[in-house]
Every structure is written in structure tokens, then in C-alpha cells.
Write a structure and sequence with these properties.
Elements lengths: L2 H6 L1 E2 H7 L6 H9 L3 E3 L2 E2 L6 E2 L4 E6 L2 E7 L9 H5 L2 E3 L25 H11 L3
Antiparallel strand pairs: 1-4, 2-3, 2-5, 5-6, 6-7
Amino acid sequence: MGLDAQATVQRIDKWLWFTRLIKSRTLAAGLVAEGKVRLNRLRLEKPSQTVKPGDVLTIAMGTRVRVIEVVATGVRRGPALEAQGLYKDLTPPREPTSDAAPSSGREAGSGRPTKRDRRLTDRLQGSD
């Protein structure tokens, strides 16, 4: 492999670390080894497999699945703006869930009474 060929391909674990999608190279290698990363729809098994510009990665990160297109290979793990230039995020936006919890945290009248509730109760019983 010549120098030009090496500049256009990069190990997947190293690339994920350079892009700051994963905190450490060890965690990136573990994610690949667990089978949570796909390269052009094929499951990766080894962190030594390479990526090149134009490849599409599907990464399962917890409950979230991200779809990333490789734009460039990295030279170093630089600042966030530099890292964001290495990929294009193709992940569809999340739909808001209709099961959203109420903002107060609990329904009125359930659970332990608040200080305000106790004052109202005391007022009703006539003990000020």
C-alpha cells in the first residue's frame, strides 16, 4: 500500500475516536467487537477493519441508532469542529413521543402532601 492509499483509509476504531462519536479508542473497539457497528449494511467484527470516504456507518449507541456518512479520514483527534468535518450525520430526527410525562412529576392529590396542601387542610379544620 502506498502513502496515498493509506491516507484515504483508516481503522474504524481510530476513525470513531477521531470524530469524537466515542470517548476512547478502547470503547470504540469494544463497540465494533460487540457487533454494534455496521459498515455499508454489513456487521463489522474487527476494529481493524477500515473505512474510507463515502462509506455509511450504522452505529447502535444505547437506545439510539445513528447513521453516519464518512466524509474524510482524520489525522488527529482535534477539536469538536474539526471532528464534525469528518462525517455527515444522516440520522433521521427523533419523533416526539406522545407518552411524555407531565411536567409536575405527579398528579394533584397523589403522594405526600406539600406544605401548601397542609396549610389548606389546617385552614379547613380551623386550626391556624
